[in-house]
TrEMBL record:
Binds 2 magnesium ions per tetramer. This is Phenylalanine--tRNA ligase alpha subunit. Mg(2+) binds at residue 254. Transmembrane segments: none annotated. It catalyses: tRNA(Phe) + L-phenylalanine + ATP = L-phenylalanyl-tRNA(Phe) + AMP + diphosphate + H(+). CDD domains: PheRS_alpha_core.
Amino acid sequence: MKERLQEIRERALEQINSTDSLEKLNEVRVSILGKKGELTEVLKGMKDVEPKDRPMVGQIVNETRQAIEEVLENARKELSEKMREIQMKAEVIDVTLPAKKNNVGHSHPNTLALEEIKKIFVGMGYEVVEGPEVEYDYYNFEALNIPANHPAKDEQDTFYINDKIVLRTQTSSVQVREMEKGKLPLRMISPGRVYRADEVDATHSPCFHQVEGLVIDENITFADLKGTLVEFAKEVFGPETKVKFRPHHFPFTEPSAEMDVSCFKCGGKGCRMCKGEGWIEILGCGMVHPHVLEMSGIDTDKYTGFAFGVGLERIALLKYEIDDMRLLYENDARFLKQF
């Protein structure tokens, strides 16, 4: 028994000293000191030892266990320190290297302009309403007093899905859908993407955005329209902004007008921005045509209303002094970060 214990001790120390990882060290511990380990098996054989020799054998077993556990613990600490040093070297940080920058997104000029417009009109009590971009010809044209073969259809030539469905040319179709609901009075703006068969150049695109407004209530007059748009212009372009209305024709409004604002760049003196005229056209507007109200089931003896429409890109181009509409769609981060 004594020789066997000595053999176990020497073999254990040899295995411990040759171990180069904590995992292997644990395997040695289990094979020697575990429940089924060699030393444990020796203890199970104590019943076969003469009673007078048991104290001596027990002492030798305990000394062997303590010696092995002590060497195991020292080896564990030494290996842990080595592993820690290797880890520290592998995870060393060079603080002189330049930091990695996070690419943070930036709002598009169109988005910035739209958020400002929404804020202005919501502050006036308007509701923001959206509708389908693929629209029935009825809502896009007929319900807006533009019947088949009307010349205005040539001005708003669009993309047809079939003879009854088109890609909308204006967000006025959303206004018709709201008027048909009959929930009056009505104060709303309808922003969204629209489509027209235009050639791409510095001021035109086959796909662009509009923000159209509609108010229907009792005793609405052109004075209400003017007051609303004057406030809108001052909020967008500055408190010194002046406006003027020029007679125009739109099939869905009567009377109709185009609105100009005094050039916010030169104060109306004339510059490159306003092409020397001192005024810049920004939107079309007018009183809603009685026939348009009637087609949506609205009593024209009781209700009147006004409508207006502004190109979102036009506001963005003017406000941020961008001279080419195509820049808005190229998605060049260097360009977008300027705003």
